[in-house]
Write a structure and sequence with these properties.
Blueprint lengths: L1 H31 L8 E9 L2 E4 L1 H9 L4 E12 L10 E12 L11 E12 L6 E10 L2
Parallel strand pairs: 1-6
Antiparallel strand pairs: 1-2, 3-4, 4-5, 5-6
Length: 144
């Protein structure tokens, strides 16, 4: 029984690192190489962006690529396993991110008043075909 607990703890730590690394890479891509953002989404992914629904990997990527340049600042990142809801899914997580994002050129985003607070929630899983972490669905909302 102790070995099972140790194995579960090890897997949780590995997944925690994977979720944190995915999130760090995702926001870095949004800020620096947004044209590559499609690789972070499952084919049938869904995004709700401040109430606007976008469906499909390519449509989401097109929407995000069209946004002005950004600089994200992550204040908090948390996640929990969705194994209770999906017993056969060992690597599916609900991820919660809060932070601030500044829009505009690099000269203008240094002004603190231009930052907008946001909440970003997404379901992250390992794609069965590519064996990579991908977003299945997400909701991004500004704090107004």
């Amino acid at each position: 029984m102790a070995t099972t607990n140790i194995d579960q703890q090890r897997k949780f730590r590995e997944d925690a690192d994977a979720v944190a690394n995915f999130s760090k890479r995702y926001y870095a891509i949004l800020d620096t190489r947004r044209h590559n953002v499609d690789k972070f989404y499952q084919n049938q992914a869904k995004l709700i962006w401040n109430g606007t629904e976008i469906e499909g990997q390519n449509a989401i990527a097109s929407y995000l690529v069209a946004l002005p340049p950004t600089k994200h600042h992550i204040y908090a990142l948390d996640f929990f396993s969705m194994k209770d809801l999906f017993p056969d899914e060992d690597t599916t997580y609900q991820v919660f991110v809060s932070g601030a994002v500044a829009y505009g050129s690099s000269e203008s985003i240094t002004v603190a008043k231009e930052k907008r607070l946001f909440s970003h929630t997404f379901v992250l899983t390992v794609d069965v075909i590519s064996s990579t972490w991908v977003i299945v669905n997400e909701c991004f909302r500004f704090h107004e």
